[in-house]
Amino acid sequence: MRTIRAVCIIVLLLGITCVSAHASGQDTIRFAFQDRIGSVIPIMAVTMGFFENADLRVEPQRFSSGPACAEALYSGAADLGCMGDATAVIMASRSPDFVIIASHASGEHRHRVMVRADAPFETLADLRGKAIGVKEGTSTYGGLLAALNRAGLKPADVRLVDLTPGTMLEALLAGSIEAFAASEPTPSAAEEKGARQLCTLGGLGNAYPILTLVNTTHFAGREDLLKRFLQAMKQAAEYARAHPEEAARIMSAETGLPLPRTQHAMALHRYDLTLDQSIRTSLDKTARFLLAQGIIKQLPDWSRALTTTYLP
After folding, report:
1. CA atoms of 94 and 289, how far apart (whole Å)
2. Strand-pair partners of 63
3. Pairing between strand 195-200 and 179-183?
4. Per-residue confidence in pLDDT tens, the chain, 312 aa
5. DSSP annotation string for 209-257
6. Rounded distance, CA 288 to CA 217, Å?
7. Which residues are paired to 213 by β-bridges?
8. Residue 233 CB contacts under 8 Å (≥ 6 apart), including other chains
9. What is the DSSP-derived secondary structure letter of residue 38?
10. Is 30 left (phi over 0), alpha (psi -120 to 50) or beta?
11. Which letter, b or e, does each residue of 34-51 get, where b requires 16 or more Cβ atoms within 10 Å of its Cβ?
């Protein structure tokens, strides 16, 4: 009798919990984003409680690269994921389930090519025959290919080494590579320890947006969650713009980068929740370049792959 009573109590409690969660309108959203300087808006939304204020239960998943976020989204481990333009284009070109719903940061010069401080190189063309570290599949990777092309180099003219951002500086200082290309905060952290900038990946007509993609199958019939999610992201963006020093302190703590370096790195970005025409044009240009390089087999159907439906 005691056992039956205990079971009944457990079932009753579980029922109350389920009803309560349903009544509050809360569903857990698994959100994959990067621990990078470009992620000010998602990091602020998490740390400042803007998702909770929107009556959302968000499970943050932090990764060091866009491809890692894409893998979490593609495998079903995440429902929403943030990544750079090249990764987003690859995802959108391969499956109709993944749709771009916003860009939360951009910056023409947020990717930089770094070399040792004592290196003799002065231009990207000087790296012919040299090893360059870069994380394959990232927006940095796409930008680097375009920059090499502008410098008169083909990918075969250099040795591209697939490295995660956290290992690039060590490889550079050890002499395993002669240069690396990465987004912030990796270049700024490298400047603290004996590296210098060779060039940025700017001047290519690319805004390098960081985009939020959604697995549409997960939110079928629950699109209101996406609207509240982006509303919370917008509030985080507005807060960061109104309190730049606090935002920089939070990002310095998140990345381990000294505050002055953090502020410099953040200045290379534009933080705004949008999918304006400049972002769309930049994405299409990136897609056409990736198609020409054979990285994607077809252009995304932008009428399906992009939507502003959920933007506040």
Report:
1. 16
2. 34
3. unpaired
4. 333 333 333 333 333 333 333 333 448 999 999 999 999 999 999 999 999 999 999 999 999 999 999 999 999 999 999 999 999 999 999 999 999 999 999 999 999 999 999 999 999 999 999 999 999 989 999 999 999 999 999 999 999 999 999 999 999 999 999 999 999 999 999 999 989 999 999 999 899 999 999 999 989 999 999 999 999 999 999 999 999 999 999 999 999 999 999 999 999 999 999 999 999 999 999 999 999 989 999 999 999 999 999 999
5. -EEEEEETTTTTT-HHHHHHHHHHHHHHHHHHHH-HHHHHHHHHHHH--
6. 27
7. 81, 100
8. 41, 42, 45, 50, 102, 104, 212, 273
9. G
10. beta
11. bbbbbbbbbbbbbebebb
Rounded to whole angstroms, the Cα distance separating 154 from 158 reads 7
Identity of the amino acid at 100: I
Q: What stretch of H or E contains 12?
A: helix 2-23
Q: Where are the alpha helices (DSSP H) in 24-136?
A: 40-47, 50-53, 66-75, 85-94
Angle between helices 139-150 and 277-292 (to 10 degrees): 70
